[in-house]
Amino acid sequence: MEKLIYEGKAKQMWSTDDPEVLRVVYMDQATALNGKKKDQIRGKGEVNNEISSLIFEYLTAKGLKTHFIKKLSATEELVKKVEIVPLEMVTRNVSAGHFASRFGIEEGRKFTSPVEETYYKSDELDDPFINESQSLALKLVTKDELDVMWKLSRQVNQLLTALFKKMGLALIDFKLEFGRLADGQIVLADEFSPDNCRLWDLKTKAHMDKDVYRRDLGELTPVYEEVLRRLKEALKEEA
Ligand code: ADP
Ligand code: UDP
Question: To bridge 230 with a disulfide, which of 141, 164, 167, 196 should be the other Cys (CB 3.0-4.6 Å)?
Answer without folding.
Answer: 167
